[in-house]
DUF1700 domain-containing protein
Amino acid sequence: MSKNEFLKELRDYLTGQVSAPEVEDSIRYYDKYISDQASGGMSERAVVESLGDPRIIGRSIVDAAARKKTEGSAASRGYENTSASGTSSRKDRSSHGKVTPDKLKLYGTIAIILLVVIVILVAITRIVAFFLPLIIVVFLATYIIKHWGDRR
């Protein structure tokens, strides 16, 4: 297949499926690609054969254009998240997966609460450890006095 036949089949496939500027951009791209490869030492026919069927290339261009259009429109308008109660909240896809100020505030609050709980537990442990010998001595003394007091 010649370069002109390849480009004609590609144009025929793309026309009506993608916008006219996208058709022209694709044709220009493949025209330049084939010319560049041919000037590098390959024959035009070999370059065209290495590209494969122009309809398969056209299908991938159509799919990419549809994906680009879908992603672009979803990002520009956001998307609706409807809960079971029927209310909807609007979310922006650009913030998906990012730490927002609200999340940062929540994480900070959780960290502070955990820190306070840890400090309280450490304080209780130290107080008990400090007074434990005294408590043991008092209990032993009370037991001994009570035990020895009953024998007399």
Remarks:
- The helical segments are 3-14, 20-39, 44-51, 54-77, 101-151.
- The CA atoms of residues 53 and 145 lie 104 Å apart.
- The longest strand covers residues 79-82.
